[in-house]
Design brief:
Layout: E1 2-13, E2 16-27, E3 31-35, H1 42-49, E4 57-62, E5 65-66, H2 72-78, E6 79-82, H3 94-99, H4 109-122, H5 138-152, E7 164-168, H6 176-190, E8 195-199, H7 203-209, E9 212-217, E10 220-225, H8 227-230, H9 233-240, E11 242-250, E12 253-263
Parallel strand pairs: 3-8, 3-9, 6-7, 7-8
Antiparallel strand pairs: 1-2, 1-4, 4-5, 9-10, 11-12
């Protein structure tokens, strides 16, 4: 059974189609990465799921329930979203920012505090716990926001619905070490039965840490499947107008590299 299902979803703005006939069936316990060039519709797809962007038509199901008919409080206990840009200008501490995620729940201050501490520890930001969020670097803020959305759906016991995590460019601002740490954490979270759908620009991270790749172009899904069957040099050239080759294969790890002088001018 799908934990998140999207049927015939379309989005238009001023009669300009942004998404066309999106159909997806996402399983619990899996990590899905959406890849594609700027303007392909990746972020719009995430936003349309939660109606931040109005849908022209189509339905979204959380488990067997039509998402539009689920109470907002129940959605907040089951579905967490990391937007591309998280704006917060109030002088809250890191612990307070992460703690905001527990607002939809009725689990009590003691348990909520434990969950907040566990999420903070998972993102390796315990040393920042009492620092003001507004004084942090971009990478530190990103890790705080990721801890916040994880804490929002930390336990299956807090909801009768499937848990879904939507991440829009989660590795933005992160250094190499914290990118790797985050991707392992995402896989670990999915292993607990969470469905993870994320927008990724780094093809190597998407290839090595996803169960499925969803390739988008001009508002449509043009390919979906296992990373190394979808992310061929030919498709990457089609999506990005950039030529790549498989640089190295070691065990299950795949690495793509741009070919020197690989830009294809005049085709964007």
């Amino acid at each position: 059974m799908s934990s998140l299902r999207i049927e015939q979803l379309q989005v238009s703005l001023a009669n300009v189609p942004l998404l066309r006939d999106i159909n997806l069936s996402l399983r619990a316990g899996c990590v899905y990465s959406i890849v594609g060039a700027n303007g392909a519709g990746k972020s719009t797809l995430l936003k349309s799921i939660v109606r931040e962007v109005p849908r022209t038509c189509g339905n979204v199901y959380l488990g067997e329930k039509l998402l539009d008919q689920v109470a907002p409080l129940q959605i907040a206990r089951s579905l967490a979203v990391l937007p591309q840009n998280s704006q917060l200008n109030f002088p809250f501490t890191v612990a307070e920012v992460v703690g905001l995620s527990r607002t939809p729940h009725e689990t009590g201050r003691v348990l909520d505090s434990t969950i907040v501490n566990e999420a903070i520890s998972a993102l390796d930001i315990t040393y920042l716990k009492h620092r003001l969020y507004t004084a942090l670097s971009g990478g530190e803020k990103q890790r705080v926001q990721i801890a916040r959305v994880l804490a929002q759906i930390w336990r299956q016991e807090d909801t009768a619905l499937p848990r879904v995590l939507l991440l829009d460019e989660p590795t933005a601002f992160l250094d190499l070490g914290h990118q790797q740490q985050l991707m392992h954490l995402v896989q670990s979270f999915a292993a607990q039965g969470v469905t993870v759908l994320m927008v990724m620009h780094d093809i190597n991270l998407a290839a090595n840490f996803s169960d499925d790749i969803i390739a988008m172009q001009c508002g449509e899904i043009v390919a979906q499947g296992a990373p190394h069957s979808v992310l061929t040099a030919e498709l990457i050239e089609q999506l990005f107008q950039a030529r790549v080759h498989l640089l190295k294969e070691q065990g299950d790890a795949w690495f793509y590299a741009l070919q020197q002088g690989s830009g294809i001018p005049g085709q964007r």
